[in-house]
C-alpha cells in the first residue's frame, strides 16, 4: 500500500517528464528531416544575397550613380531638366541598417513614348527603384508641342 501511495505522488511528475522528452524528441526528429536540404538552401541564400548585392548602389558614389541616369537618358532619347541626389536615409525595416534609401528628384522631358520607355527601363533596370511620386505635365500650352515633362521622386536601394 505504501508503494502505491508513494508512486501515485510521482505519477504527475513522471507524466510531465515524459511529455517534455516526447516533445524534445519530436523537435529533434523534425530537425533531422529538415536538415537534408540544408546545404542546398544555404547555397541558394548565398546566391540570392549576391544577386541583391550586385543591384545595390553606394550612396557616396554620386558620379557613378548619376551615370546610371545619364545612360537612361541616352538610351531613351529623353532630356533631363533637373537631376538631384538627395541625402540618403537609413531603412529601418528588417531591424538593421544594412541598406539606405538614396532619394532622387528627377525632372525629365520627352515625348510620351520616350517617357514610357524611360519609366520601363527605370523599373526593370539595375538598381532597385521605388517611385514615391510622379507628375506628368505638358511642356507648354501649345497643341503642336508634343513634349511632356515627368517629375519623379524616387529612391534607389543602396549601401551606406
Can you give a write-up of this model?
This protein is α+β, with helices and mostly antiparallel strands. It has helices at residues 2-34, 38-55, 62-76, 112-123; strands at 57-58, 79-85, 89-90, 100-110, 129-138, 148-159. Strands 1, 2, 3, 4, 5 and 6 form a 6-stranded mixed sheet that branches. The longest helix is centred in the N-terminal third of the chain and has 33 residues, at 2-34. It starts with a helix and ends with a strand. 12% of the residues are buried.
Low-confidence stretches: none
Portion in strands: 25-35%
Order of helices and strands: HHEHEEEHEE
How many strands, which pairing sense, and closed or not: the largest β-sheet? 6 strands, mixed
State the helicity in percent bands.
40-55%
Number of strands: 6
**How does the helix and strand content classify structurally?**
alpha+beta
Distance between the termini: 75 Å
Shape verdict: rod-shaped
| Rg over CA atoms | 29 Å
* Arithmetic mean of pLDDT: 86
Structure annotation, total helices: 4
Descriptive terms for the model:
160 residues; alpha+beta; 6-stranded mixed beta sheet
Amino acid at each position: 500500500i505504501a508503494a502505491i501511495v508513494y508512486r501515485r505522488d510521482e505519477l504527475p511528475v513522471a507524466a510531465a517528464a515524459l511529455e517534455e522528452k516526447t516533445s524534445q524528441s519530436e523537435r529533434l526528429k523534425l530537425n533531422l528531416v529538415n536538415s537534408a536540404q540544408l546545404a542546398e538552401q544555404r547555397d541558394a541564400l548565398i546566391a540570392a544575397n549576391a544577386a541583391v548585392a550586385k543591384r545595390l548602389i553606394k550612396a557616396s558614389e554620386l558620379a557613378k550613380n548619376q551615370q546610371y541616369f545619364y545612360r537612361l537618358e541616352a538610351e531613351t532619347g529623353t532630356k533631363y531638366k533637373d537631376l538631384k541626389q538627395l541625402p540618403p536615409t537609413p531603412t529601418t525595416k528588417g531591424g538593421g541598417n544594412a541598406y539606405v534609401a538614396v532619394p532622387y528628384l528627377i525632372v525629365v522631358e520627352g515625348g510620351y513614348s520616350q517617357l514610357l520607355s524611360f519609366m520601363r527601363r527605370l523599373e526593370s533596370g539595375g538598381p532597385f527603384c521605388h517611385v514615391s511620386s510622379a507628375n506628368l505635365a505638358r511642356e507648354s500650352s501649345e497643341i503642336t508641342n508634343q513634349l511632356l515633362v515627368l517629375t519623379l521622386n524616387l529612391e534607389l536601394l543602396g549601401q551606406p
